[in-house]
């Protein structure tokens, strides 16, 4: 998915001549703390709520305000990951989207970006979550998938966390089974470090004693 797929035109941009009061009213109505300023189709900048903190005359035009944010936009062809990164890096409530000629197209709301992130990580889908610690030299997602599929399950989503000044990686996978006891046991047989599990619907079955014994053994 790219930025253009997430564009919303439900909120109209400010014009340079619009008064500060109009900006404040629109921020309150849409529950956002940022608004784009556009002259015709030219994007002039993103007004932040804090830019208005010291303004006393709310009849003044927003075009006269010094904006604090730098380059808060994405091009329509950029990946959704770039959208999420920019929203996060600059703590934005919305993000303007421009075309290749730098014309304003619309905005992406933070809520829409979060919904996209929820969809690609299968948050709404039922399933168990397994967190593994592996060496960055043994980062074989194919082997991890093979272990999961050997228990007639599939990986719904996965992501990798790097640790500064470490050769270890944390791999989090979500599978389409709630009972992940057998999958966890398989990872342990292959010498994976299982850091945590979540949403396991059957943690106490006939394998629990053997699983606990193995974990106790590995802790020595």
Q: Report the end-to-end length measured between terminal Cα atoms.
A: 47 Å
Quaternary state reads single chain
Instruction: Give the helix proportion (percent range).
Output: 25-40%
**Spatial sequence of strands, sheet with the most strands:** 7-8-6-9
Secondary-structure element order, as H and E?
A: HEEEHEEHEHEEHEH
The overall average pLDDT, rounded, is 88
For the largest beta-sheet, the strand count, sense and barrel status come to: 4 strands, antiparallel
Radius of gyration: 24 Å
Question: Approximately what portion of the residues adopt beta-strand conformation?
Answer: 25-35%
Helix/strand-derived class? alpha+beta
How many alpha or pi helices?
6
Specify the overall morphology: elongated
Unreliable sequence segments = 205-211, 216-220
**Total number of strands:** 9
Any overview of this molecule?
The chain has helices spanning 20-30, 80-89, 110-120, 141-149, 181-189, 208-218, and strands at 34-39, 42-48, 74-75, 94-98, 104-109, 129-135, 155-162, 168-175, 193-198. The chain has 220 residues and is an alpha+beta fold. It is elongated, with a radius of gyration of 24 Å. Mean pLDDT is 88; it is low at 205-211 and 216-220.
Provide a compact summary of the structure.
The protein is of the alpha+beta class and 220 residues long. Helix content is 28%, strand content 25%. The protein is built from 6 helices and 9 strands, in the order αβββαββαβαββαβα.
């Amino acid at each position: 998915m790219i930025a253009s797929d997430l564009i919303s035109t439900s909120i109209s941009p400010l014009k340079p001549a619009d008064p500060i009061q109009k900006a404040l009213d629109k921020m309150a109505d849409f529950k956002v703390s940022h608004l784009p300023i556009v002259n015709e189709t030219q994007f002039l900048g993103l007004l932040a709520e804090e830019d208005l903190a010291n303004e006393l005359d709310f009849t003044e035009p927003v075009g006269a305000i010094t904006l604090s944010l730098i380059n808060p936009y994405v091009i329509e062809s950029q990946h959704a990951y770039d959208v999420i990164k920019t929203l996060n890096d600059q703590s934005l409530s919305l993000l303007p989207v421009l075309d290749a000629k730098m014309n304003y197209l619309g905005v992406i709301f933070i809520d829409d970006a979060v919904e996209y992130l929820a969809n690609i990580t299968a948050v709404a889908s039922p399933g168990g979550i397994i967190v593994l610690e592996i060496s960055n030299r043994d980062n074989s997602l194919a082997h991890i998938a093979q272990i999961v599929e050997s228990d007639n399950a599939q990986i719904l989503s996965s992501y990798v966390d790097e640790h500064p000044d470490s050769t270890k990686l944390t791999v989090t996978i979500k599978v389409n089974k709630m009972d992940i006891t057998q999958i966890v046991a398989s990872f342990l047989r292959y010498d994976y470090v299982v850091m945590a599990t979540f949403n396991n619907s059957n943690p106490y079955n006939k394998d629990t004693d053997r699983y606990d014994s193995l974990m106790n053994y590995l802790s020595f």
